[in-house]
Amino acid sequence: xxxxxxxxxxxxxxxxxxxxxxxxxxxxxxxxxxxxxxxxxxxxxxxxxxxxxxxxxxxxxxxxxxxxxxxxxxxxxxxxxxxxxxxxxxxxxxxxxxxxxxxxxxxxxxxxxxxxxxxxxxxxxxxxxxxxxxxxxxxxxxxxxxxxxxxxxxxxxxxxxxxxxxxxxxxxxxxxxxxxxxxxxxxxxxxxxxxxxxxxxxxxxxxxxxxxxxxxxxxxxxxxxxxxxxxxxxxxxxxxxxxxxxxxxxxxxxxxxxxxxxxxxxxxxx
Length: 270
Description:
The protein is an alpha/beta fold. The chain has a single domain, classed as Rossmann fold, CATH 3.40.50.880. Helix content is about 30%, strand content about 20%. The strands form 3 sheets. Strands 4-1-5-6-13-12-11-8-9 form a 9-stranded mixed beta sheet, sandwiched between helices. α3 (about 105-120) links the parallel β5 and β6. It is globular.
């Protein structure tokens, strides 16, 4: 069987009490949770999905991963991008509230994003994950997008093809343009977005109101998308791209290991 690349997928931590009909004896413990759709898409693209709890520290897992998928979720705490004064009291950390801040998740994913970029591990950031990528490079966020003609925090249930007017223009000479073409319609469930791009990052796609929808690092296997490819009703190439890039990295690493072993063995015999 052909080897498949290992794709690490992040998630969140919640109190077990949020699960309906959970045995009350377990209500005080915490659970790790990630939407299964990410794993389904990774597996369908030919990768092996594995879940990364917070305890899977970036430096510990980096050598074993071929790709990284940072998932959607709650807001990144504003202190992580230099504006602690923007923090909202109603979102104070609370493991019984899925949308509350989680600084442990922020720290875990920011470290993972930095390590992936530094080690050229293919990285896809989805929605919050794109924002985490930007923050990890010193970028800032728009804390709350103003209401406008284009609906970014849609009322539609997942999965969704996206509102017809949520059109994204992709810029020339970018990875996003190669993957998605000149223009596409995508779903949208976010109220924040990239403001100032972080170090080396560029915005490669925007909606007509100027909201950043894709970010990337030129000539690096790094991409952030503001929509949810795992909940798109039509095919989305972003997760296929991640798995393909991870497979290429896996093959290069394995070939390098074989050549190094052969060289060492040959030297020993001589």
